[in-house]
Specification:
242 residues; alpha+beta
């Protein structure tokens, strides 16, 4: 068998494989994009799970229902570092992971306003570092922009049974409901994960994840950092300027 035959055969085979992969990618790309959109919107709505229509849990909604609910009841605005609204929609298109790496003064951040018939909620995305890799999530505040109505967390590689509990254990997220990010004097204090457990009646602390100190510290830092970036917007809305 000549070298020219082998080269020709290899070239044709490579071209056929490349063409097949291109066709496959183009055929599956719309589905992949829809799945990515669904995953993101479901994670956002998970932070207001107690205010979803019909009292249903987030997992009881179909994919199309999630997308429809988001489009009908969520306004995704964009704010800058001063708290000014720079776009009345389009927040869902912002890649938060990239924005978090930008200089603070250059950040344009998404805010998701969930318009429940009786309870408007403001949902703020968060990014941070856990024990092994990135952690992220969304925190929802009530109309007073102080009381937490819900949270949803996720992670890239925290330890199963330990740090991964921020996502896997519903009771961890449930303890945030009713907590407050401002003290009685109106000062921002965020919410702290307390090793050994939060004191009874502490409105600004929750129990840390047992055996996952670094992940818990990462969540504490993430909450404080993310909410700090949104403070100008929060203060502006509370003052009636938005």
């Amino acid at each position: 068998m000549s070298n020219s035959y082998i080269i020709t055969f290899t070239f044709i085979l490579t071209a056929v494989v490349a063409l097949s992969l291109t066709v496959l990618r183009q055929a599956t790309e719309p589905l992949a994009e829809k799945n990515e959109e669904l995953f993101k919107k479901k994670a956002i709505l998970a932070a207001v799970k107690d205010y979803l229509p019909g009292g249903k849990s987030i997992d009881e909604f179909s994919g199309d229902e999630i997308l429809s609910l988001f489009d009908k009841q969520v306004q995704d605005i964009v704010v800058d570092a001063t708290g000014k609204v720079v776009a009345e929609d389009g927040g869902e298109n912002i890649e938060v992971a990239k924005v978090w790496k930008e200089a603070p003064e250059k950040r344009q951040l998404p805010v998701y306003i969930y318009k429940h018939p009786e309870h408007t909620c403001y949902i703020f995305p968060m990014r941070g570092k856990g024990l092994w890799d990135d952690i992220w999530g969304n925190i929802a505040l009530g109309p007073d922009l102080n009381e937490v109505v819900g949270v949803a967390f996720d992670h890239k590689g925290e330890t199963p049974g330990l740090g991964a509990e921020i996502k896997d254990n519903p009771k961890f997220a449930e303890q945030f409901a009713g907590k407050k990010i401002f003290d009685e004097q109106g000062q921002f204090v965020s919410i702290v994960l307390k090793k050994g457990g939060a004191a009874p009646g502490d409105e600004h602390a929750v129990d840390a994840v047992t055996g996952a100190t670094l992940t818990s510290d990462g969540v504490t830092a993430m909450l404080k950092d993310a909410l700090s970036w949104y403070l100008p917007y929060i203060e502006s809305v509370k003052a009636g300027k938005q």
